[in-house]
Write a structure and sequence with these properties.
Layout: H1 15-22, H2 29-49, H3 51-54, H4 57-62, H5 72-91, H6 95-116, H7 119-134, H8 149-171, H9 183-194, H10 207-231, H11 242-255, E1 271-274, E2 280-287, E3 290-294, E4 298-299, H12 304-318, E5 321-327, H13 329-339, E6 342-353, H14 365-376, E7 380-385, H15 391-403, E8 429-434, E9 447-456, E10 460-468, H16 476-487, E11 495-502, H17 504-510, H18 517-533, H19 535-543, E12 548-556, H20 562-573, H21 607-615
Length: 616
């Protein structure tokens, strides 16, 4: 029998010491190293900008990369900026950032020791270098899809940052400035200095050399990083290949009736991952480092876990943030169960059951009166499959949809197909409104409004696009939706999915008697935001048709990822664009060619539809 005396622990290493000796957990190393590199970069920039800080003891701790002779300030600033640029890549576990850090840290430590004989800086660099080598397996993330736009973004951001930092550099030597230069002279001096020329501000002693070298270093960094991004091999965002599209169409033919958003997986600016069995797939797009899927996985529910696992593996391989927009309740349950992610209700989808739809009754009075008034004004409607339209009619619809678009950029991702009349989309539906007018000079003849629907299995369809001539009478969208619902039985359609209404339940509950102060405040905020995003008006527009509401969810990893996911979703939907402004574009859009894409944003009524909502 053995005994243990708790009071005698001689020879044992305390648990706290063991944790220190063992080091940080491998999965936390990228974040720790990235944060350390960012702090060191900030301190190096401060060391290069502020003279007193550069000669303080703090600089001995902050200085990881070397500074030499008369170029000390310039090199410190350059090193700090490079480290700041490198830190984000290290946090995202990027392999290229790891390679750059492995080269920079020892080179900087050796040079610093040779110049200042500083042991502290060498120790910091050695610790970071050892962590990088020991945990190199944590830095395996592949590069992101990239394009030339990143070079432009880098030029704009670096130029703005260099001018701001340059103004600080120019003003940190108040005792050495000759005269009293104003803000204009200071900005001019900074701009000249970025290009390597002497500006109008003069200094006593050697300060002018320090300021000049520092500004020149900022300009050189801006130029070199922009040139690197502009001339490196371009990796465009993934596109849906013809083979992938054929496989998705096969899955939709078997399982397309389960999700009303399934057909939107055929957007050709999405990529796809399949389950090992090939019976399920997840389509996605990468936006600002977020791997954004939409709707439920395509295919057999039993095979969803395999496709989801492949999706998560792809996200991990590139260190992308995984997210799903607009999945159903069943989809959200599978995603959260298989991945450990969390889900949040985003809004509701409006679905109309054709057999229950009728214009009779007090609840439908406004819609009924609007439709009757428009019909009396001479408007007629047609609801057909795309395959039934002639090529001339398709050209007319495409041109009208482009010309009547309410924004400069196409919008839509989760509930948009991105094209009209493609040869493979003959099973889609088009509803059109017509009126013959004397003296009408419209290039689209008697066509006044267009609705485009995509298939939802064999007995349903989902609204994808709404466009109308701005000169037409209000109520075109209501007219065509009613016409589509009335024509649905002859098309063997039993259910129709309309738009997606964000935060619908909050708006509905917040206006009822007994709603609490928090719910009322949340509703008031949504009403305020509707001035730009028309959240409330879209809900009320859909509610006219007495639909049933199906909740839709966003799936995310952690709460802190939600702002990033929201921004990426707004980019994908077209609410935020990083493209160059069309300063010299004509206000009248030209008639597009047949291959152009057309889509409709799922979370916003077009400007003309908004006016119709208000008029009703």
């Amino acid at each position: 029998m053995s005994s243990r005396i708790d009071g005698d622990k001689s020879g044992q290493v305390p648990s706290g010491v063991r944790r220190i000796l063992r080091g940080p957990r491998p999965e936390s190393v990228p974040g720790l190293v990235g944060t350390a590199v960012m702090i060191v970069g900030l301190l190096d920039v401060a060391a290069g900008v502020f003279p007193r800080f550069r000669h303080s003891r703090i600089h001995a701790v902050a200085e990881v990369l070397p500074v030499f002779g008369p170029f000390a300030a310039a090199l410190a600033i350059s090193a700090g900026v490079l480290l700041l640029l490198l830190a984000h890549g290290l946090k995202r576990r990027k392999r290229r950032a790891w390679r750059a850090a492995v080269v920079l840290l020892p080179a900087g430590a050796v040079a610093q020791f040779a110049y200042r004989h500083s042991v502290v800086g060498v120790v910091i660099a050695a610790v970071l270098f050892a962590l990088l080598l020991r945990h190199q397996g944590e830095f395996k993330a592949l590069p992101d899809p990239r394009s030339r736009w990143k070079a432009l973004a880098n030029f704009v951001l670096m130029s703005a940052g260099s001018i701001g930092l340059g103004l600080v550099i120019v003003n940190v030597h108040p005792g050495r400035v000759v005269g009293n230069p104003g803000l204009y002279e200071q900005i001019t001096h900074v701009v000249y200095g970025l290009f390597g020329f002497e500006g109008p501000v003069d200094y006593a002693g050697q300060v002018s050399w320090t300021v000049g070298y520092s500004l020149g270093a900022l300009g050189m960094l801006t130029a070199l990083t922009t040139m690197y991004l502009a001339f490196r091999p371009e990796h465009p965002a993934a596109r849906l290949t013809a083979d992938d599209e054929d496989k998705l169409r096969e899955l939709l033919a078997k399982h397309g009736g389960r999700d009303s958003l399934g057909h939107f997986a055929l957007r050709r600016d999405k990529a796809v991952v399949f389950s090992p069995s090939g019976k399920a797939a997840v389509t996605y797009r990468v936006v600002s480092g977020v791997m954004l899927a939409s709707g439920d996985p395509i295919g057999d529910v039993e095979a969803w876990p395999g496709a989801i696992e492949r999706f998560m593996e792809e996200a991990k391989a590139h260190s992308w943030t995984p997210a799903v927009m607009g999945c159903s309740e069943t989809g959200g349950e599978v995603w959260t169960r298989e991945t450990g992610l969390d889900a949040l209700e985003l809004g509701d989808e409006a679905i109309v059951d054709v057999k229950d739809f009728s214009l009779s009754g007090r609840a439908m009075r406004n819609v009924r009166q609007m439709v009757k008034r428009i019909e009396r004004n001479g408007y007629t409607t047609k609801v057909r499959r795309v395959s039934e339209l002639t090529e001339a009619e398709l050209d007319q619809v495409r041109g009208a949809a482009e010309a009547w678009r309410g924004t400069d950029t196409e919008r839509g991702f989760s509930m948009a197909l991105g094209r009209v009349g493609d040869p493979g989309d003959g099973d889609c539906f088009i509803a059109t409104a017509h009126r013959v007018e004397e003296g009408d000079t419209s290039p689209f003849g008697d066509l006044k409004a267009v609705l485009h629907f995509v298939p939802w299995g064999t007995d349903g369809m989902s609204l994808e696009l709404m466009r109308r001539d701005r000169a037409a009478d209000p109520g075109m969208n209501e007219l065509l939706i009613v016409a589509s619902l009335e024509a649905a039985p002859s098309l063997k359609i039993e259910k129709v999915s309309l738009n997606f209404a964000m935060f619908r339940s909050a708006l509905a509950r917040g206006e009822k008697i007994g709603a609490g102060p928090v719910l009322r405040m949340w509703r008031n905020l949504l009403v305020f935001l509707s001035r730009w995003f028309q959240i409330e008006s879209l809900y009320k527009f859909n509610a006219k048709f007495r639909p049933r509401w199906e909740p839709r969810f966003v799936v995310f990893r952690t709460t802190r990822d939600l702002p990033r996911i929201g921004f990426a979703a707004m980019q994908a939907e077209g609410f935020v664009t990083l493209a160059l402004p069309r300063l010299f574009a004509s206000r009248r859009r030209p008639k597009p060619v047949r291959t152009c894409a057309h889509n409709h944003t799922p979370a916003k009524v077009p400007a003309q539809a908004e006016r119709e909502v208000q008029a009703a």
